[in-house]
Amino acid sequence: MSSAYAFSTPYDWFAHYRIHVPSFDKEGFSIWRIDFKYNNELTQTFMSSNQIGGFFNRLEASRKYLFGSMGVLGVSNDSIISGTLIARGQEIQPVVDVAPDWESYSYELIDLSNEEQKKFFEAALAWDLEIDGKKWVDGKNVSFFSLHFLSIDM
Q: How far apart are CA 143 and CA 42, in angstroms?
């Protein structure tokens, strides 16, 4: 029997990840870095956070296939949007193309055996991400499917 988890904070999810990462199903799921392509158009950080929330709302049709954390890094008029998504399967496009604005983001497959990519992934989940001196200001989690891929059998 598998356990399903719900988390109240990003740190709850991060602690669970650190304990159960050996049971990650690399064949059934893939991990992606996601970056907004048009950061020069971002103004207020709260508006950028709302943009992330809207993107996650538009991903509703993929609710069974997606989990992740994205955030706004920086300050007003000098910020970026970045984060990580865990998707069922090895391709991200079929999962995110339900959102009309999916092409406004770039996607890069994360390899957890690469130390730099692993640090990015862990920092994004912990809402501790920093890129080019820009620190995490606000973020959103999308947690549609149950996290059975990191659960332990009981």
A: 25
Q: Examine the pLDDT at 8 and tell me if it is beyond 90.
A: no
Instruction: Find the length of the chain.
Output: 154
Strands 105-109 and 130-131: unpaired
Whether residue 54 is contained in a domain is answered as: yes
pLDDT at 7 over 60: no
- Contact of 24 with 150, CB cutoff 8 Å: yes
Give me the CATH number covering residue 99.
3.30.70.1010
Per-residue confidence (pLDDT) for residue 28, from 0 to 100: 87
In a domain, residue 8? The reply is no
DSSP state of 126: T
DSSP classification of residue 105 = E
31 in any annotated domain: yes
pLDDT digits (tens, 9 = 90+) for 28-78: 889 999 999 999 999 999 999 999 999 999 998 888 888 889 999 999 999
Q: How many CB atoms lie within 10 A of CB 33?
A: 18
CA distance linking residue 117 with residue 89, whole number of Å: 19
DSSP H or E run through 73: strand 66-75
**Number of domains into which the chain is organized:** 1
Is 18 part of a structural domain of the chain? Answer: no
